[in-house]
Specification:
P-loop_NTPase, ATP-binding
């Protein structure tokens, strides 16, 4: 195919900070374009698990994370270019503020060449919006800006004040639209971020309401096309999991799963079998188990009442088969979890110990992990951590993560026979041989 085949209308939705409404606006645009019969592909910047669930329901298509540190430039460029070849419009939601983090949303927007929509919560603000927009634009002049979307507009007079401020900015920044305060909807949140999309009963109604509001604005029409160029070639991954079946927990309690991780396991030859601990399903016949992160602390009674899943996991571990658990998955392996309300629930007891959910954040940020696994060849597994619980685990220390931007100690990786567990969420593509070893794959 020619490079021009990878050309598609696209917008990058960012903001000065978290809390300005990026997810709301991105989801509303995705729903609006989808209702117009367009094929919409949405991406989420960074390691987030929850925003993509909302964006997936809005767009009707799986949402892939774009993270320059976890996945690398080529992987990000490839994902977007392939989407552009088939989609009518591509939307990318940023993370935090436009320039926050290393790498930042601005770095990704520049790499992809996508014009930025700056979502600004204008509540309590008038012409000063122009100074804020001017700062965002002037901070890195090489970036492309489509304009400002003002969130929380109180009245036509308020909108006029905002427009005046933007006209006084140098360079002038267009006001794409003002979303009225009484037309906003707030996505419910809890300690790890947004409430998961399947738990918001009226999510479609909320999405349609804001899409209706956006339908009368300049954003209703498709943006200008962006030529993404031919995608970089995909890496060749060794098929070290050929013939292996990996059982993967997946339900509301265990939903923090990168789509790229599932794809990587399959590329390496694994067959995936999904099961639900919340439904107390029997563990599928398998060679290895993956317990991803999620919200087990919100479902203590249901998880405690279950007998089939826990019994299957205990039998699996006692048979000496590989079991890899991340964050919430690790908590499920412990003897007890104590929630924020002080109520506790008995879990699997595969690892001795207890986790207690704290009122404050206990761990956040990128970390690298080196495991002396057979055939790993010195790979460094790139990971992210974000948790409110504190765990005391009675198991052997296998390794410790190394923080990317902090001199303090990283997360501990625990091991008991073939059970490996930690608070870290790993991005499997960064160290495929290490991942294969964790799941009992062949040495390279």
């Amino acid at each position: 195919m020619q490079a021009s085949d990878y050309r598609c209308p696209a917008l990058f939705i960012s903001a000065p900070a978290s809390g300005h409404g990026k997810t709301t606006i991105t989801a509303a645009l995705a729903r609006l374009y989808r209702r117009d019969g367009k094929k919409v592909r949405v991406f989420k910047t960074g390691p987030d698990f929850l925003d993509p669930m909302v964006l997936e329901q809005a767009s009707g298509h799986p949402v892939v994370n774009l993270d320059l540190w976890l996945g690398g430039e080529d992987h990000c460029r490839r994902q977007v270019a392939l989407a552009a070849r088939e989609a009518d419009v591509v939307l990318v939601e940023g993370v935090m503020g436009l320039y926050d983090g290393e790498p930042s949303s601005a770095d990704l927007a520049q790499l992809l060449g996508i014009p930025i929509v700056a979502v600004i919560n204008a509540r309590g603000m008038g012409q000063t919006v122009g100074a804020l927009a001017q700062g965002l634009v002037a901070y890195r002049p090489e970036l492309k800006f489509a304009g400002v979307l003002a969130n929380g507009v109180a009245s036509p007079r308020h909108a006029q004040m905002l427009r005046q401020g933007l006209q006084n900015a140098r360079p002038t920044v267009p006001l794409l639209t003002g979303l009225q305060r009484d037309m906003q909807f707030a996505l419910p949140e809890r300690h790890l971020g947004l409430v998961a999309a399947p738990e918001i009963a009226d999510l479609d109604t909320r999405l349609d309401a804001v899409a209706d509001r956006m339908s009368s604005t300049s954003l209703a029409g498709l943006p200008e096309p962006v030529d993404f160029g031919a995608p970089p070639p995909e890496r060749n991954f060794p098929r070290l999991l050929e013939g292996k079946t990996i059982a993967v927990a997946r339900d509301l309690a265990f939903s923090f799963i990168y789509t790229a991780n599932l794809e990587l396991l399959q590329r390496m030859g694994a067959t995936l079998a999904f099961f639900s601990p919340l439904a107390d399903e029997a563990l599928p016949e398998c060679d290895a188990v993956w317990l991803p992160g999620g919200y087990p602390e919100l479902y203590l009674e249901r998880l405690q009442a279950g007998v089939n899943t826990a019994a299957g996991l205990r039998a699996h571990a006692e048979a000496g088969k590989p079991l890899y658990a991340e964050c919430g998955g690790m908590l499920y392996l412990l003897e007890t979890i104590v929630g924020q309300d002080g109520k506790s629930g008995r879990m699997c007891g595969i690892l001795p110990g207890q986790a207690t959910v704290q009122p404050r954040l206990q761990g956040l940020g990128y970390q690298t992990l080196s495991l002396n696994q057979p055939g790993a060849f010195g790979e460094h597994l790139r990971c992210h951590t974000f948790h409110y619980s504190r765990a005391v685990v009675g198991a052997q220390f296998m390794a410790r993560g190394e923080r990317l931007f902090d001199s303090s100690e990283g997360e501990v990786v625990y091991r008991r026979d073939k059970v490996v567990a930690s608070y870290l969420h790993a991005y499997f593509r960064s160290a495929p041989r290490t991942v294969a070893a964790l799941f009992g794959g062949a040495a390279a």
